[in-house]
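thread: overnight batch results

M.L. [08:02]
morning all. the overnight job finished for the chain we discussed friday. pasting input first so we're all looking at the same thing
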Amino acid sequence: MHYSAYSHRETLMNQNELLHEIGSRVRSTRNRTGWTLREVADRSGVSLRFLSDLEAGRGNISVSRLADVARALGTALSKLLPPDTGNGSSIERVMGFVDRCSDEDLEELTAWLGKRFNERPDPLVMLVGLRGAGKSTVGSTLAKLLEVPFVELDALIEEEANLSLSELFSLHGESYYKRLAHDILLRLLTRNEQMIVATGGSIVTDPQSWSLLKRRTHTVWLKATPDDHWKRVLGQGDTRPMANRRSAMTELRSILSIRSPLYSEAAQTIDTSSTQVRAAVRLVAAALRKTPAARPKTSSTTRRVRQENTNGRATKARPA
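M.L. [08:03]
and the structure it wrote out:
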């Protein structure tokens, strides 16, 4: 009887420790993503109260519901479960270090492990540049050639927020847009599959996201003359710039001038004003076949340019 009671208490202690460990992992993962409890609850279908109890180590959650939480957080179910190993094992120590890693630490660790085990996954291709640079046209054509998916970051952001970009900026502002963009980019990278991504024009003005893309993807600046940017945007059916042509064109030239030093940090630059779509696609495909070179370092003008961009840019319903 004494042994049975002791075993029962020990089992309860192990269960409580497990629940606290799971709750800690859920909380630390959510904090890294920047999402609120309410946002994760809405995405997972788990009630806000139960999710709060789960993070506090009081929620005895089923495996299927924990899988829903993992999907909402953009992570694997196994990442929310402690390793089933003995105390003090090397794996437990490593997992303890991993749990304390920041996003940048995890990116560096992933890159190191890839080199350690000779893993050379095909890089994601990130197309950057202002609206009208040809990102959608070049990107979709390149994706067909390589037989990989093509996605537009702004479309993923709209889907994530369940809002149009104009509504998102009006309700939540640019900082929320940048946070969603960064979260989505991290999730795309963790999928470890090649794809072509057309980014928003302002992605280079977010130091965290731009640094991530330069480290982990093949970045391509599709540049064009201000006149070509202008004509292509109108050709897409967007007539808003015609409301005040002189000031709009001046603003376009100003934004292009300010961001160009940042765009030029991309691994590859293609002038779509002088290069046809098929030729541009061949240039990117050829670059991907070569051994990846070291990513360009941030130029000495980066901080000044970002400051100018922040101070000199008017609030817009959609990033250029």
